[in-house]
Amino acid sequence: MDGKSISQAVIARLPRYYRYLGDLKDSGVERISSQDLSRLMKVTASKIRQDFNNFGGFGQQGYGYNVEYLYNEIAKILGLNEKHNLVIIGAGNLGQALANYMNFERRGFIVRGIFDNNPALCGKEIRGIRVQHIDTLEPFIRENSMDIAVLTIPKESAVRTAELLAGCNVKAIWNFAHVDLNVPDNIVVENVHLSDSLMKLSYGIVNK
Ligand code: NAI
Questions:
Q1: Are 158 and 164 spatial neighbours (Cβ–Cβ below 8 Å)?
Q2: Fewer CB atoms inside 10 A, N or C side of the chain?
């Protein structure tokens, strides 16, 4: 499989397949046809087959998909069969909320460190992890080999911090700050803007 040739639209749909298959697996379903998956997910069966064909198809024609196998294969494609160490930078409202969300760890995303530049927050424990001063971020990342840095800091700080991260071998940045980051190509950046989702919702309301 050549990961580069898969469209971003297909990749973006994989987590949803993964969630549905996880629920099916947990309810004891062993096999599912693309038609049944289509009804459940409200995606056409042909779209499902097209998506899965990007990865070799996964299923036997007419016999349906083996749910557990498909679930595990999608996990592998998404890299969820491996653990990812992450640091949260910014221990304010959002940083603390993310640090407190246990489900990320069930998916293999392990919070290893939380950093802030506010001395009043340093030493505070969030789910057993002590907030450390931002000045110790660089040595911490170098010593502990972090995969992902989560940026929950104001945008001005995010730009500077991304530059620092670029020099410390972080593989990816999960960026919540409302700013586009300039980092080298070897660092993957995923921007999350909850307000974009809210604006889409607003569009849905006014165009109903
Ligand atoms: P907050 O003010 O509660 O927390 C920000 C934290 O960052 C503070 O504890 C502050 O001391 C720390 N900080 C500031 N500069 C720093 C630096 N250079 N290094 C380390 N720590 C630093 O703010 P909140 O509500 O948690 O939001 C954080 C950021 O996330 C903001 O930029 C906000 O606009 C953004 N945000 C984005 C959302 C999204 O959907 N993308 C949703 C909510 C907030």
A1: no
A2: C
Alpha-carbon torsion, ordered 128, 117, 136, 107, to 10 deg: 40
Q: What is the DSSP letter of 208?
A: -
Ligand 1 pocket, 155 CB below 6 A?
yes
Six token digits for residue 15: 């987590």
Distance CA 136, CA 138 (A): 6
Band of residue 62 on the pLDDT scale cut at 50, 70, 90 = confident
Helix/strand/coil (H, E, C) string of 19-63?
HHHHHHHHCCCCEECHHHHHHHHCCCHHHHHHHHHCCCCCCECCC
Regarding the beta carbon of 177 and ligand 1, being less than 6 Å apart is answered: yes
CA 181 distance to own-chain centroid: 17
pLDDT in tens, 70-129: 999 999 999 999 999 999 999 999 999 999 998 899 889 999 999 999 999 999 999 999
Q: Whose CA is nearest to atom 23 of ligand 1?
A: 92
Q: What is the pTM of this model?
A: 0.92
Residue 87, SS3 per DSSP: strand
Residue 153 Cβ contacting ligand 1 at under 6 Å: yes
pLDDT digits (tens, 9 = 90+) for 14-56: 999 999 999 999 999 999 998 999 999 999 999 999 999 999 8
